[in-house]
Amino acid sequence: MSRILKIGTRDSELAVWQATLVQNQLAAHNIASELVYIKSDGDIDLVTPLYEIGVQGVFTKTLDAALLSKRIDIAVHSMKDVPTQLAKGITQAAVLKRASSKDILVHKGGWELVNGEWTMTNPEQAAIIATSSIRRKAQWLNRYPHHTIENLRGNVNTRLQKVADSNWTGAIFAAAGLERIEKRPDNSFELDWMLPAAAQGAIMVVCREEEPDTKEACGLLNDADTALCVKLERDFLRTLMGGCSTPISALAAISNNTLTFTGNIYSLDGSQKKETHMELPMDTRHDVLAQTGNKAAWELLQNGADKIVEEIRNAGY
């Protein structure tokens, strides 16, 4: 490619790290690029909970507009922030190899490791946990119904400072975000029991549909296993509800030539849960593998998840 690709990115530390990773990987293929910094509505409003400002596309729509107006050539996103239906005229160009998909708790003491599992020193403590994710909130309340959930917004550094300055017991973060910019504190541990958001830990590159040469260039960065796994997770999410601001989780992984898929949906208060689990050998026909996320979602809907979905919709999500 002879021209210099303009990479659109939000200006947060994590977003710039991700865009720089893409820039470096393009450079490894002798493709020149430059970063273009664009502030999103999601970065400007740090008070309103994500689910009240229409979280679908809140961190992507400004970059989408810049892409469609040709101010930039490609945009780089944390894939879990990207709506399952891309904006018209925009196409997926690459999915980079996934980092950790785990959620972690950054805490202020009161936890201990017992027989390999993190537990509260005082299980009856009325803890206060911070997160703006209704997925994390529902899973946490399912496990700890007597705890209080507080809203937490802002970029990684802002959120870490809010935790330090507050009376909260702890706050939930995506491991990948903190680890990428080397900000994961020692006082944190993985929530192995918490299923992540669809595509958590993955980085997505998008471009204009009308430019196949750009898509081809970015395709050099694509990790096929990650791309398949996040597709199944996003299919699951889309078939159940369609949006990422829902208490729906999914994780697909490939190991020992086996595809494993786990998905769930919770009621908003965490009191109800429906979960599914599937395993398929990777030598299964590709068209069958590709339908795993949809199949898992329909299985849940036929197993009572439709009632939870209706309750969520009636609540305005």
From TrEMBL:
Xref: PROSITE patterns: PORPHOBILINOGEN_DEAM (PS00533)
A GO CC term assigned to this protein in UniProt: cytoplasm
GO MF terms held by the record: hydroxymethylbilane synthase activity
EC number from the UniProt entry: 2.5.1.61
Claim: Disulfide bond is one of the keywords in the record: no
Residues annotated as domain Porphobilinogen deaminase N-terminal: 5-215
Metabolic or biological pathway: Porphyrin-containing compound metabolism; protoporphyrin-IX biosynthesis; coproporphyrinogen-III from 5-aminolevulinate: step 2/4
Keywords, comma-separated and alphabetical: Porphyrin biosynthesis, Transferase
KW Transferase (keyword) present: yes
Co-factor requirement: dipyrromethane
Family of this protein: Belongs to the HMBS family.
Assembly mode: Monomer.
Name of the protein: Hydroxymethylbilane synthase
Organism: Filimonas lacunae
